[in-house]
Design a protein that fits this description.
The protein has two domains: about 10-145 and about 310-375, Periplasmic binding protein-like II (D-Maltodextrin-Binding Protein, domain 2); about 145-305 and about 380-435, D-Maltodextrin-Binding Protein, domain 2, CATH 3.40.190.10. It is about 45% helix and about 15% strand. It has helices at about 10-20, 45-60, 75-85, 100-105, 115-125, 125-130, 155-160, 170-180, 195-205, 225-240, 255-260, 275-280, 320-335, 345-350, 360-365, 375-380, 395-410, 415-435, and strands spanning about 35-40, 65-70, 90-95, 135, 135-140, 140-155, 185, 215, 215-220, 265-270, 290, 305-315, 355, 385. Strand 8 (about 215) and strand 9 form a beta hairpin. The longest helix has 19 residues, at about 415-435. One of its GO terms (biological process) is maltodextrin transmembrane transport.
Length: about 425
């Protein structure tokens, strides 16, 4: 997930373009003196870019004011839940797609109006539109798409005599063994952060032909899923993965990042959004970072990363005037005349952070930036990615899987016991969530 530690590399250009706006023009129906708010967890640079977009929108819609509110990622969902029903609660929120089913159920993600729905259908890939469709209709604008790939240290590979990044699990284990020496681990994993634990592991599951769910049925005890837990167990037992080097959080701070940045971890599986954190932390050493598809397991046919997305929704509990203004702002923010060179303002902001935008026009407008050696692998693998299941009970499901994968990493459970327990717990969570 994107975080406040990521710094922009092109926000200044986006700010200048958006702030210039297209002055004049009045409101086309939204009542005067309408104040809406946009809740995000982005950092100061991204907030400034959103504020610039808001200023440009306000010039076109006199009487409408957009207030950008930022909270830490850990407080984002709770803030929306606790403040969403109040008159001054957030009108718009940037949300993780895993939260969407519950937000729709609870009325915190309202209906998309017909004109915005038509805009979405015309300008976003069909699979992304389907991903934001819940209870019979689309619920918001997809903004970013994130997926995973193998990140590795090219300098350490060369020193270890490894000619190319691993394409299979067998090659992954062999490379990890060669890289492990002098206090360095060959392959690093994350603990303490649900998505950071589950998504890389599940990318290996997917690349072995397994799945987390088959419809609403958990598949954690499937042999192809169990095999990924057994892979982790072998790496830990061999010393190629060290639990003490794994701690991290959604701000990419902690031993996990530090060990990769400082050459104490040879390989990791991580998402495209953390490019900014790597560049900032590594400086000139960033040139040592290589990217490759997720290695394929013995029962898999192709690399198949987990993907997930973020979207902007409008609070269904806000009054109708605010909802109307909010959808207008989102249509503007995601429209290709709000940014530079055919991009939307949102596309400019996302790309400046190394994040893949999701609209067709934004991907085209930012083709040059998305072709850099780091991001190009993620873009190429997007077609093979498997979306993380967005279902009622999804967050609790993810936390249950996290617990048992961590138990394997810390040697508290065998892979067989961990996956058996996870299967039972996830089945129970999904059953209760659906009742």
């Amino acid at each position: 997930m994107k975080t406040s530690t990521m710094r922009t590399v092109a926000v200044s250009a986006a700010l200048a373009m958006v702030a210039a706006g297209c002055g004049g023009g009045g409101d086309d129906g939204t009542p005067a003196a309408t104040k809406i708010s946009f809740l995000t967890h982005w950092g100061p640079d991204q907030v400034k870019a959103l504020e610039a977009a808001a200023q440009a929108f306000q010039k076109r819609n006199q009487g409408v004011t957009v207030d950008i509110r930022a909270v830490p990622f850990g407080n984002l969902l709770s803030t929306l839940r606790t403040q969403g029903s109040s008159p001054n609660g957030p009108t718009i929120a940037s949300v993780y797609d895993l939260w969407l089913p519950e937000l729709v159920r609870d009325g915190l993600s309202g209906d998309m109006p017909a004109d915005a729905e038509a805009d979405l259908a015309a300008n976003w890939p069909k699979n992304l539109v389907e991903g934001v469709t819940k209870q019979g209709g689309p619920r918001g604008y997809p903004n970013e798409v994130d997926l995973y790939a193998l990140n590795y240290n090219k300098k350490l590979f060369k020193e270890a005599g490894i000619a190319a990044p691993p394409r299979t699990w067998a090659e992954l284990e062999a490379a990890a063994a060669k890289l492990t020496k002098d206090g360095r681990q060959g392959f690093g994993v994350i603990t303490s952060w649900p998505a950071g634990v589950v998504h890389p592991w599940l990318s290996l599951v997917n690349s072995n032909g397994g799945r987390l769910l088959d419809g609403a049925v958990p598949k954690l005890d499937d042999p192809r899923t169990l095999a990924a837990a057994q892979l982790y167990s072998r790496l830990v037992k061999s010393g190629a993965t060290q639990a003490k080097m794994s701690n991290a959080n959604a701000n990419t701070t902690g031993p996990y990042l530090d060990n990769f940045v400082n050459g104490r971890t040879g390989m990791i599986i991580m998402a495209n959004w953390w490019q900014g954190a790597l560049k900032e932390a590594m400086g000139e050493r960033y040139q040592d970072v290589g990217v490759a598809p997720i290695p394929v397991g013995p029962d898999g046919a192709t690399s198949a990363s987990v993907s997930y997305s973020w979207l902007t929704v409008v609070n269904g509990k806000a009054d109708q005037a605010k909802q109307q203004a909010a959808w207008k702002f989102l249509t503007f923010l995601n429209g290709k005349d709000s940014g530079r060179n055919g991009s939307s303002a949102m596309g400019d902001i996302l790309t400046s952070m190394g994040i893949l935008p999701s609209s067709i026009s934004d991907l085209k407008a930012h083709q040059a930036e998305l072709s850099d050696p780091f991001l190009s692998v993620y873009v190429a693998e997007l077609a093979n990615a498997v979306p993380f299941p967005s279902v009622l009970g999804g967050e609790a499901m993810s936390q249950a899987v996290q617990k048992h994968v961590e138990n394997v990493v810390f040697g508290k459970e065998t892979p067989e016991a961990a996956m058996g327990a996870a299967q039972r717990e996830v089945a129970d969570i999904l059953t209760k969530a659906g009742t």
